Structures are given as C-alpha cells and as structure tokens.
Amino acid sequence: MVDNIEIRGGAGAEEAAAIAAVVARIGADELAAAAVRPHPIHKSQWVQAGRPLDHMAPVPPEEYDKQPERLSSDPSR
To answer: pTM value?
Structure first.
C-alpha cells in the first residue's frame, strides 16, 4: 500500500483527488484479493475425457478369484 503519492505535471485539485481515489481503490482491491482463497481449478469435460482412467491397484493372486466379474469393454453387451 502506498503511504505518500506525489502528483506532478500541473494536475489540479480535482485531478489529484481522482488519481488518489484510483490508487486507494487499487490498494483496497489488492488487499481484498489477497484475503480470499483461490477457487480450485475446474476441468472441463473435454479435459477430463482426455485423462487416463483410474486403475485399481494390483490384486494378489489369492484374492483375484474373489473379485467381482468385470463387465465387457464392449458397450453393446
């Protein structure tokens, strides 16, 4: 945040007040933005469709026969 602003170049009282108001508003907006946690990034369905599917962890051989039958990869079945 700026403590002291020097406005030069022939600015009148109205112009100086407008510049000071803008600088104060920018400082307030920066403080407000820093106080808010960022939102998680939402991935579109197109991005999610291109990602690999989650795979199950390997199953030990003695547990393999206890697993439920997997559906066919053919969607028509």
So the answer is: 0.45
